[in-house]
Amino acid sequence: MAGLMIHLLMAEKLDINRSISYYIGNIAPDAVSDWKSKDITHFRNEEDRNKSLSDLAIKTSPSDDFAEGVLLHLYTDWRWDLLARDEFIKKTGEDWLYNYRHELALSSSYAYHNTQWAKDIWNKMSLCDKSMYNELSGATADEIHDLIVRNKHWHANNITNFSDAFPPEFIENFINTVSDEYVNWKIQHEITYYNSSPCVFEDFIDIPLMSDSELRLECIAKKPAIPEKKWVPGYVFKICRNDNRVGELNVRIGYRDSLYYGGQIGYGIDEQYRGHHYAERACRLLVPLLKAHGMERVLITNNHTNKASQRTCERLGAKLIRVAPVPQWHDLYEEGNRLENIFEWKIE
């Protein structure tokens, strides 16, 4: 088990503009007070702890900040136990537990008083309404809130030197190493999660009228799946303002590993028509088509430097899941993209 400030440092390292419930999730599993129950909720009783974490990861919605925080906590504790706790036990021997807790307390207190944002995060967590986060196995929302309040006061009132067993440089190296490891691990499970998303495709459908008071979508192509290339079927639309083409929209029906990085929706607005939110409006016109194919969520991705496309996703209400490194096998890598923003848009 890592100290609470170590969990918050890890959360901050990986934060993709997450809400305060993400930070609460990152400490919530320690609200389980009974040690035997905590061993169960942290999978310490499992023969293959990694598999249990993987099973949880592929069921965890990446858009659920609290659940994502809980998952990161459990992963961090797994790696901490292997890389820090077990080594401490080897050096200390049978009487390790009291000394271990003492060193964790020192490291957490020192990190609190030497981290600029720590006081603010603890204040925000303590003021967060309990309805904004969930209960979890072994702990109620009240118990989680009590954990936050108690530890906020404890950290504020205990000023210590750093831990000799877990000094700041050790913690920094741990966080840097494990955060990179976690991103790669989590992306693989996010791909599995999205690939299991509902989708119905028996054939291309007759396109309903998709227009608002100004824009309309005109289907100009229906592209069949190419299984040998792992390409899903798709539609291509011309975006029209009155009778003028202003851009193009591509929709892919289904989920594949490559679409985690490429997305189900791609859009481009001709340069002279940009600045009018046409891409956002065109995406909204797609909702009946996506619902007809049983799709409840889609990914929209964009190059990390493409601010205009990012703003389109934000106006849609899509949630930024993460900034993902593009693998070398993907076409986007060959095009020069190295980091992609992965947005999830829920179809309502």
Architecture overview:
The chain has 14 helices and seven strands. Helix 1 (4-14) crosses helix 9, helix 4 (49-57) packs antiparallel against helix 5 and helix 7 (118-127) packs antiparallel against helix 8. It folds into two domains: 4-195, no CATH class; 215-346, Aminopeptidase (3-Layer(aba) Sandwich). The strands form two sheets. Strands 1-2-3-4 form a four-stranded antiparallel beta sheet. A three-stranded antiparallel beta sheet has the order 5-7-6. The mean pLDDT is 95. The two termini are 40 Å apart. It has 348 residues and is an alpha+beta fold. It has helices at residues 4-14, 20-25, 35-41, 49-57, 65-92, 96-113, 118-127, 141-157, 168-195, 257-262, 278-285, 287-292, 307-316, 331-334, and strands at residues 215-223, 234-241, 244-252, 265-269, 297-303, 319-325, 339-346.
List keywords for this structure.
alpha+beta, 14 helices, 48% helix, Aminopeptidase, 7 strands, elongated, 3-stranded antiparallel sheet, single chain, 15% strand, 2 domains, 348 residues, 4-stranded antiparallel sheet
